[in-house]
């Protein structure tokens, strides 16, 4: 009887002793406290302490409290303090990171300003150089003999690019040869082998005042078509001065309509006089042989020209018209003494035509400084021919990008000349959004 | 104090205690609802989805505080609400940081584009200078 009692007594003693020991032992460290300790060891803490010392100090105190509570077995208090400590420390780290990001942002803005300044300086120098090239062209042309009013083939760069199609307007007679434009400072894009182009530049008129700079414009457009757009010579028609009569232009339009293949694209460039119908305001393109007194009969309505291009099988037509229809000077004509009775009408939208016009409403389309052609055409050449309108640097110039680049520059240059000229763009309903419609692409890839 | 006095005293004490508890529960309810509203506002501001996990934790704690309030564990609910407030402040800063980082990315891309354009204009200038010098030689 004694033995079992003793045994039970000893068992009871050991049980209570173990229970007491277990009650006094430190429990396992809470995960939250361990996580806080890991966070405290991260390298960002020193920066956080500099940025938000109060938060870090509070976090330290909470960490110590969490440890104390853990040692004294109050796990709930320990966990609560550890969570709060971690939040405070992460808050301080977030503030330090924010400061670092702000510094980076300031550096980037500074770099952007510097790049902008440099770009403006380089662009100014480029404009001046182009102006010098234009003057040299003029000088060269003066020295080159002209036979029967036709510019002869010229051996040097740029000046030779202006010529005209013979009356037959056979594609083979296209005067642009790669040699004449190859050395010009023209950007090169991915060739658009299935596209077609019609370029019309009329500087001298049979019975009307000249439209100065239109031949230079035609030259610029030829360089853009040949090099930047990479359109094959057989797909290009050029009509300059006396080879741009009403019949010539109509024949070229017919040629485009007949030859353009499905899914391709047509580029139309016109530089010369425009005229409004004095009674209705309908805009007309003025051919070489036009009569100002009979605009309706001797000129071509712009809407008809665009309509004819639209009738081709092309997917879209991109038209650039450096002309104005105000009848008030610049590149717009009316018989002497006549003023338009009405505002020049807007051209009706054609479904697949994107029309870039040199000026809006009754504004005048003027010349570029330094006899560089028409102001609008000069900037179109810079934009496409030199890739300057590739504002996002992706090697592609969309119609939207082109307009965003052109408009402020033309308007600014016109203002310096004491007038208003705001280029406009008009897109048909079957044309993709302008920002998604590439005019050229692959700049610098070839 | 006679018996009636004791009854009166105990009734007042009980009513006062009950009123105090009801007031505390209301305070906590307001605080939790305000916390939930804050969480919704922060989620709307988080365009970059940079703090989704932190918001999830905040919402979980608010639910926990609500549950403790329902069990009349007011002190514990208050501790959790304090953590919620701190978490809200942390999330606000993290959202600001994420927005700034997005701006940095945008500016970096813009800078790269502008540098590419500048390079192209420089190249065009070089070509133009070459052409000008050739023309000068030819005139």
Structural class call of chain A reads: alpha/beta
Count of the domains of chain A: 2
**Radius of gyration of chain B, in angstroms, nearest whole number:** 33 Å
Spatially, the strands of the biggest sheet of chain A line up as 2-1-3-7-8-10
What would you call the shape of chain A?
elongated
Please state the oligomeric state of the protein chains shown. heterodimer
Query: What series of H and E elements makes up the topology of chain A?
Result: HHHHHHEHEHEEEHEHEEHEHEE
Query: Helix tally of chain B?
Result: 3
Instruction: Report the order of strands and helices of chain B.
Output: HHH
Estimated radius of gyration of chain A: 38 Å
Largest interface: A-B, 55 and 42 residues
Class by SSE composition of chain B: mainly alpha
Tell how many strands the DSSP assignment of chain A holds: 11
- CATH class of the largest domain in chain A, please? Alpha Beta
Major β-sheet annotation of chain A: 6 strands, mixed
Written overview of the protein:
The complex is a heterodimer of chains A (446) and B (139). In chain A, the strands form three sheets. A six-stranded mixed beta sheet of chain A has the order 2-1-3-7-8-10, sandwiched between helices. A three-stranded antiparallel beta sheet of chain A has the order 4-5-6. In chain A, strands 9-11 form a two-stranded antiparallel ribbon. In chain A, a hairpin with a 6-residue loop joins strand 4 and strand 5. Chain A has two domains: 20-136, no CATH class; 164-440, Rossmann fold (3-Layer(aba) Sandwich). Chain A is α/β, with parallel strands linked by helices and 446 residues long. Chain A has helices at 2-24, 31-40, 44-51, 53-71, 75-143, 178-182, 214-228, 246-259, 295-298, 302-310, 375-385, 399-416; strands at 196-201, 236-240, 265-271, 274-276, 283-285, 300-301, 316-322, 353-357, 397-398, 424-427, 438-440. Chain B is mainly α and 139 residues long. Chain B has one domain. Chain B contains three helices and no strands. Chain B has helices at residues 3-45, 52-70, 74-138. Chain B is rod-shaped, with a radius of gyration of 33 Å. Chains A and B meet through helix 5 of A and helix 3 of B.
């Amino acid at each position: 009887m004694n033995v079992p009692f003793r045994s039970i007594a000893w068992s009871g003693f050991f049980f209570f002793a173990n229970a007491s020991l277990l009650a006094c032992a430190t429990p396992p460290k809470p995960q939250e406290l361990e996580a806080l300790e890991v966070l405290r060891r991260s390298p960002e803490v020193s920066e956080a302490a500099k940025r938000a010392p109060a938060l870090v100090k509070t976090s330290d105190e909470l960490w110590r409290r969490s440890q104390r509570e853990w040692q004294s077995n109050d796990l709930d208090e320990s966990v609560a303090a550890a969570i709060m400590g971690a939040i405070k420390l992460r808050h301080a780290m977030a503030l330090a990171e924010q400061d670092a990001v702000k510094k980076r942002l300031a550096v980037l803005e500074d770099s952007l300003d510097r790049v902008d300044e440099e770009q403006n300086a380089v662009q100014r120098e480029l404009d001046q150089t182009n102006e010098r090239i234009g003057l040299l062209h003029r000088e060269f042309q003066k020295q080159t003999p002209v036979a029967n009013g036709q510019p002869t083939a010229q051996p040097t760069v740029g000046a030779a690019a202006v010529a005209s199609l013979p009356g037959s307007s056979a594609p083979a007679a296209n005067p642009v040869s790669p040699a004449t434009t190859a050395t010009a400072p023209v950007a090169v894009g991915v060739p658009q082998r299935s596209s077609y182009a019609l370029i019309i530049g009329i500087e001298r008129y049979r019975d009307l005042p000249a439209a100065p700079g239109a031949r230079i414009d035609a030259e610029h457009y030829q360089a853009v078509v040949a090099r930047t757009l990479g359109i094959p010579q057989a797909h290009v028609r050029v009509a300059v001065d006396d080879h741009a009569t009403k019949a010539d232009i109509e024949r070229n339009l017919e040629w485009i309509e007949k030859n353009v293949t499905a899914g391709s694209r047509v580029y139309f460039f016109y530089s010369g006089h425009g005229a409004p119908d004095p009674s209705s305001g309908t805009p007309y393109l003025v051919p070489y042989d036009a009569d100002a007194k009979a605009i309706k009969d001797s000129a071509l309505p712009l809407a008809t020209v665009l309509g004819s291009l639209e009738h081709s099988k092309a997917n879209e037509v991109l038209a650039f018209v450096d002309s104005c229809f105000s009848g008030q000077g610049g590149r717009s004509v009316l018989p002497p003494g006549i003023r338009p009775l009405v505002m020049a009408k807007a051209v009706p939208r054609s479904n697949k035509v994107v029309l870039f016009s040199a000026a809006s409403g009754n504004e005048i389309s003027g010349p570029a400084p330094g006899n560089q052609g028409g102001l609008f055409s000069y900037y179109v050449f810079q934009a496409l021919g030199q890739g300057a309108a590739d504002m996002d640097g992706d090697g592609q110039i969309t119609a939207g990008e082109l307009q965003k680049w052109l408009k402020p520059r033309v308007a600014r240059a016109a203002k310096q000349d004491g007038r208003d000229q705001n280029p406009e763009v008009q897109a048909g309903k079957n044309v993709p959004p302008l920002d998604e419609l590439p005019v050229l692409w692959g700049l610098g890839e070839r | 104090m006679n018996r009636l006095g004791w009854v009166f005293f105990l009734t007042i004490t009980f009513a006062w205690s009950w009123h105090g508890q009801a007031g505390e529960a209301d305070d906590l309810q307001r605080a939790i609802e305000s916390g939930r509203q804050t969480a919704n506002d922060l989620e709307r501001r988080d365009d970059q989805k940079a703090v989704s996990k932190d918001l999830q934790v905040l919402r979980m704690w608010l639910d926990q505080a609500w549950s403790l309030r329902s069990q009349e564990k007011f002190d514990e609910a208050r501790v959790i609400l304090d953590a919620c407030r701190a978490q809200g402040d942390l999330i606000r800063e993290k959202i600001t940081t994420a927005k700034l980082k997005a701006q940095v990315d945008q500016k970096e891309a813009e800078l790269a584009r502008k540098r590419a354009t500048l390079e192209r204009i420089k190249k065009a200038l070089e070509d133009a200078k070459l052409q000008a010098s050739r023309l000068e030689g030819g005139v």
